[in-house]
């Protein structure tokens, strides 16, 4: 029973932590990593960031930067099959997007943009958000008409993406950045340069470093641009802490009670040990060692049970929607932290029964039991 309490405590906590971390990762992947970047560089007075190549080269030279994503944005009206709607034209560099934002991984139909799509000799092609495509009734191979700067631009749909963000999937149309740059006569410029770092959570010092390097640009972290995402990730962390606290209590109480009952049931045995030469310290160490063994066995069994639950949730996710799937995120800390916390909780829970056992009166225990 005591071992079962420890095994269940760890076995339940491990998949709980893994699923919450997986939820955070899924949300960040679809919002911060794909659309906002960890840090963004945008103009303060002008409409565009100029000398883009130099800025990208400087930023990518920093040790904590994984890569940059220059993008050019333009509002437009799109028409297809008699339907029209306002949308966001987003000029991207396909190779960089595939390397740093992984936008191509959200493709559900057709193909993603390619580097050769920049050529003026080829037809203009685009990748649409799935909700926008559905609203327009557009399918692969269809032509859509985009109106911007009083010019109608015909684009052929070659791919459809589902990012899982309503505001993006229902408004976004992706084209090669070179195409939109040519339309606006832009050279080495972008509306925004997104920066991907090695750690999106410890972003403050890096934002300050970039602000010092580029005082003429507006430098923002994803926490400033997408405060609601930070609220969600913080909520997941608070749920983890509350869950760990509840599990801690749920393990300590039954372990302490069952160990105490064990001591009461073995009073005669303890009395005989004390009467035959064992001292109170020996009795204390015997019962504490039993608790230690219970903790070790419980940790091994709990980690195995937790791993089994995680494997189950890999195949049967807790959230499995067409545009959003949450699978357990497995890291060493996923297993180590719950195991260590509950192991020491088990030891602490066994201290009081061990102390009580060491204070048993041998004469009373032998003759009254």
Question: Could you explain the architecture of this structure?
Answer:
By secondary structure, this protein is of the alpha+beta class. The protein folds into two domains: 2-27 and 230-368, no CATH class; 39-199, no CATH class. It is built from 13 helices and twelve strands. The protein has helices at 2-36, 52-60, 94-101, 130-136, 166-169, 177-183, 204-213, 222-225, 227-265, 267-275, 280-315, 332-358, 362-368; strands at 39-43, 65-80, 83-92, 107-110, 125-129, 143-148, 151-161, 172-176, 192-197, 217-221, 319-321, 324-326. The strands form two sheets. A six-stranded mixed β-barrel has the order 2-3-8-5-7-6, surrounded by four helices. A two-stranded antiparallel sheet has the order 11-12. Helix 1 (2-36) crosses helix 11 (280-315). The longest helix has 39 residues, at 227-265. The chain is elongated. The two termini are 24 Å apart.
SSE diagram, text form:
Elements: H1 2-36, E1 39-43, H2 52-60, E2 65-80, E3 83-92, H3 94-101, E4 107-110, E5 125-129, H4 130-136, E6 143-148, E7 151-161, H5 166-169, E8 172-176, H6 177-183, E9 192-197, H7 204-213, E10 217-221, H8 222-225, H9 227-265, H10 267-275, H11 280-315, E11 319-321, E12 324-326, H12 332-358, H13 362-368
Parallel strand pairs: 3-8, 5-7
Antiparallel strand pairs: 1-9, 1-10, 2-3, 2-6, 2-9, 4-7, 5-8, 6-7, 11-12
């Amino acid at each position: 029973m005591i071992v079962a309490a420890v095994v269940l405590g760890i076995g339940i906590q491990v998949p709980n932590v893994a699923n919450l971390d997986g939820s955070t990762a899924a949300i960040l992947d679809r919002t911060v990593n794909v659309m906002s970047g960890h840090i963004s560089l945008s103009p303060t007075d002008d409409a565009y960031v100029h000398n883009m190549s130099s800025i990208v080269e400087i930023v990518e030279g920093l040790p904590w930067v994984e890569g940059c994503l220059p993008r050019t944005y333009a509002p437009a009206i799109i028409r297809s099959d008699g339907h029209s709607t306002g949308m966001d034209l987003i000029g991207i560099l396909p190779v960089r997007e595939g390397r740093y934002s992984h936008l191509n991984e959200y493709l559900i139909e057709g193909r993603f943009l390619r580097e050769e799509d920049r050529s003026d000799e080829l037809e203009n092609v685009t990748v649409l958000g799935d909700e926008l495509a559905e609203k327009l009734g557009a399918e692969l191979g269809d032509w859509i008409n985009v109106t911007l700067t009083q010019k109608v631009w015909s684009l052929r749909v070659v791919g459809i993406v589902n990012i899982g963000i309503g505001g993006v999937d229902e408004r976004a149309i992706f084209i090669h950045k070179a195409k939109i740059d040519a339309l606006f006569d832009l050279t080495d410029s972008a509306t925004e340069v997104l920066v991907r770092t090695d750690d999106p959570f410890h972003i403050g010092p890096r934002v300050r470093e970039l602000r010092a390097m580029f005082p003429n640009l507006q430098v923002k972290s994803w926490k400033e641009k997408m405060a609601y995402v930070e609220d969600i990730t913080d909520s997941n962390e608070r749920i983890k802490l509350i869950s760990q606290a509840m599990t801690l209590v749920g393990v300590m109480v039954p372990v302490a009670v069952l160990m105490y009952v064990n001591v009461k049931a073995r009073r005669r045995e303890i009395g005989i040990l004390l009467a035959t030469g064992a001292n109170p310290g020996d009795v204390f160490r015997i019962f504490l060692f039993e608790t230690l063994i219970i903790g070790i066995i419980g940790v091994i069994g709990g980690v195995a049970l937790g791993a089994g639950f995680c494997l189950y949730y890999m195949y049967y996710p807790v959230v499995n929607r067409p545009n959003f799937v949450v699978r357990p995120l497995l890291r060493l800390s996923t297993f180590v932290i719950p195991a260590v916390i509950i192991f020491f909780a088990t030891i602490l829970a066994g201290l009081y029964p061990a102390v009580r056992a060491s204070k048993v009166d041998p004469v009373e225990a032998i003759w009254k039991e």
